[in-house]
Design brief:
The chain is of the alpha/beta class and 207 residues long. It has nine helices and six strands. This is Nucleic acid-binding protein.
Length: 207
């Protein structure tokens, strides 16, 4: 079943848009993961690979246009989780079933491999742009809970959106359609479902 979005953001198709010098983008975790963890290309469907490569092309284009690029420290947690999960799945495919905690605690060589992949990925992330700080305190958590009432995003994204708001960043490069339901931001995406829905709802913007 396809996801039915109510689009409230301004949506841009990255296949039809180019970065500008005046842009300031937050690059979401899904794009950072794709750009920095090459093993995903081995486990994803070829059509998915083609779509995700568009994000890398767009982000790389920000260097030519002198656009500002930011990332959130919370993305490290997301990248670490998915990289460890993927490494375990690769291991299980050849060695048989192993639980998540068993894999983490009982296989030293595999653990070293996971850490190496995470460190390499994050080193690439930090070379892409500027860290957008987020302080998770009582004020931020209250704001995140308030967002939860009206914006259908996950827990990580609640705090990423708060970080964007606190630093005046309104543009996000993401494959996550949930961001398209958030008012007051600009979503740059290659997500076909989001693009088609935004067009149908009059929220697809040309530039």
């Amino acid at each position: 079943m396809s996801v039915h979005y109510t689009i409230q953001a301004d949506v841009f198709d990255i296949g039809q848009a180019s970065p500008r010098e005046s842009d300031c983008f937050l690059v979401d975790s899904n794009v950072l993961l794709w750009m920095t963890y090459s093993k995903l290309r081995d486990v994803e469907d070829p059509k998915r690979v083609q779509i995700m490569n568009r994000y890398a092309d767009f982000v790389n284009g920000t260097g030519t246009s002198n656009s500002k690029v930011c990332y959130c420290g919370l993305s490290l947690a997301e990248l670490a989780h998915i990289i460890e999960k993927t490494e375990r799945e690769i291991y299980v495919a050849s060695a048989g079933a192993v639980g998540a905690k068993e894999y983490r605690q009982n296989f030293a060589a595999e653990r070293e491999q996971v850490i190496s992949e995470i460190e390499a990925a994050w080193a690439q992330v930090t070379s892409l742009g500027e860290l957008l700080p987020v302080t998770i305190d009582s004020v931020t958590t209250a704001a995140a809970l308030n967002r939860l009432q009206t914006e259908r995003v996950d827990g990580y994204d609640l705090f990423i959106l708060e970080s964007m708001r606190n630093h005046g960043v309104v543009q996000v490069i993401t494959d996550d359609g949930d961001f398209a339901t958030v008012p007051g931001i600009q979503v740059f995406t290659a997500n076909n479902n989001v693009i088609k829905t935004a067009h149908a709802q009059g929220r697809l913007i040309s530039r």
